[in-house]
Amino acid sequence: MSETYTLYNPTVMDHFMNPRNMGDIKDADGVGEVGAAACGDIMKISIRIKDGKIADARFKTFGCGSAIASSSMATELIKGRTVEEAMNFTNQEVVSALGGLPPVKIHCSVLAEEALKAALEDYMKRHPEAAAEARQTEAVPA
Amino acid sequence: MRNVYLDHQAATPLLPEVFDAMKPYFTEHYGNASSLHQHGLRVRDALKKARQQTAALIHAESEEEIFFTSDGTESSNLAIKGVAYANERKGKHLVVTATEHPSVMNSVEFLEKQGWTCTRIPVTPEGLINPADVAAAITPQTVLVAVHHVNHDIGAIQPVAEVGRLCAEKGVPLYVDCEASAGWLPIDVREFGASLVSFSPHRFYGPKGVGILYRNKRARLVSILHGGVQEGGRRAGTENIPAIVGAGVAAEIAQRELPARMAHTAHLQQRLWDGLRTHIEFIKLNGPVPGPRRISTNLNLSTEFIEGEGQLLLCDLNGIAVASGSSCVSKSLKISHVLAAIGLDHALAQGNLILTLGMANTEEDIDYVIETFAKIVAKLRNMSPMWEEFESGEIDSVIAPRGIGKSFSQHAAEVSGKAAH
Q1: Interface of B with A (CB under 8 A)
Q2: Same domain, B243 and B297
Q3: Between chain A and chain B, how many beta carbons pairs sit less than 8 Å apart?
Q4: Which of A59, B133, B209, B418 has minimal CB crowding within 10 Å?
Q5: Domain shared by B23 and B127, yes or no
Q6: Domain of residue B23, residue span
Q7: CB-based contacts of B290, cutoff 8 Å, min separation 6
Q8: Which residue from A44, A64, A65 is facing B385, i.e. has the nearest CB?
Q9: ipTM of the complex
């Protein structure tokens, strides 16, 4: 075949074939593992927090190409953000950064958001003092 | 990069002889078979010849029992709705296998909304029906039994002739979907005791855009497309002559080459399955083992701890074309209803891949697939939280349980809040 056709756009394909931040963090500060009831995919995100910021984020995913790409992109986007900023992270950021996902695959980006939030919640549970601080500075929900 | 096409269930390349036979019917012999002049009469002859060739492939008594449709979906819609409507006064009950093709299942669902009832016959974990279950499901109101010869997903060969005998005893017509077997396995409509049989040439080196429905003259059938009186009044619409001519030639070649096709694919099927299970841990074959109960072209695999679409994409990027019954591949986000019907664990259905062999595949191709697929599995497992949790003893394998940790389904339900379907 002279031409290559792809199921997803080049950015999604790149993150699927060469995922960023794949793996685990040893002694992570927060770990979130969530599953999508709709399709059965499972995503796990581990984070390391340093000085109130996400110093490192890693993922492992049981799921399709767009689920792997969504978790790769989510971990890329979230690094360097404060815990408060990260709490306001939405799946839409993942979709935009990936240059779009097919409508039937949007739920993969939702799963990435949920995995990240679960990791942050885990961090807050382990560090109540950080949770109190985050609540104070948290932006008023729209 | 090597290119290995392992999706012959979806489509096959047109044989050069088939293409050559079709060509004149696009340009020179363009007449409409309904016309009464030279142009029409010429293609009428071609139509008759194709009817004879396709009738011969399935050992039909007469070419007049062959109707040309547009594809397998139209054939099964006509078989089911056409028989149901024709026998409405006799009764409104149907019996079908739970693992029929969607064109059968959805035709039945359509009729159920209009007052028909249907009994779905369950299958064993290998995907086989028990003919006695079919006989037990037949009531005085039953107007049609539908079973498939070979399952489109898992390659199981059903005991069709036995079902046919039981249907004949009860006087109920039997429709056999032979879409997954025609051109690769012998089909004998008389031995099957079938009143209706459908098959399509694009599965055996013929063109797309044409389907064949055999109907025994004793079975009542009304048209579901309303228009002219083509195809004995059972299928209105101008005949797709080039495709029909191609169907005839493809059927004739298939009949001639059947033993060679079965031998070639059976050899590669065994080599592929042996290679995969030797090189990959926690891999399962769905459906019967290669042999008399499984078609030689099909392997349906579940590789544990990884999902099917990722496997499919990485295969494709390595030149290997395959299909999958995973929910991530389906537009409805549901696993294949066949995998659900055989009671396959959801985790295994997620990791599903369907490989269908053909004549162009070689031993070298198979060895390349085994080697490449082992690497793909390793890459995806390395990315999978399930593999990590299996290795740490948190969850157990479904394929080869160690008795340590909880089940995948239990784990999935815990992390997703509700159970996967």
Answers
A1: 3, 305-310, 313, 317, 326-329, 331, 333, 335, 346-347, 350, 382-386, 388, 412-413, 415-421
A2: no
A3: 84
A4: B418
A5: yes
A6: 16-254
A7: B266, B269, B270, B273, B296
A8: A44
A9: 0.91
Written as six digits, the tokens of A46 are: 């581990």
CATH 3.90.1010.10 matches A22-135: yes
The sheet carrying B211-215 orders its strands as B66-69, B211-215, B196-199, B174-177, B142-148, B93-97, B117-121
Q: Which of residues 28-87 of A touch B (CB under 8 A)?
A: 33-44, 60-65, 67-68
- Provide the 3-class DSSP secondary structure of residue B258: helix
Q: A36 and B416 in contact by Cβ < 8 A?
A: yes
B383:A43 CB<8 A: no
The answer as to whether B376 is a domain residue is yes
For position B60, which CATH number holds?
A: 3.40.640.10
Beta strands in B276-367 (DSSP E): 283-286, 298-303, 320-321, 352-356
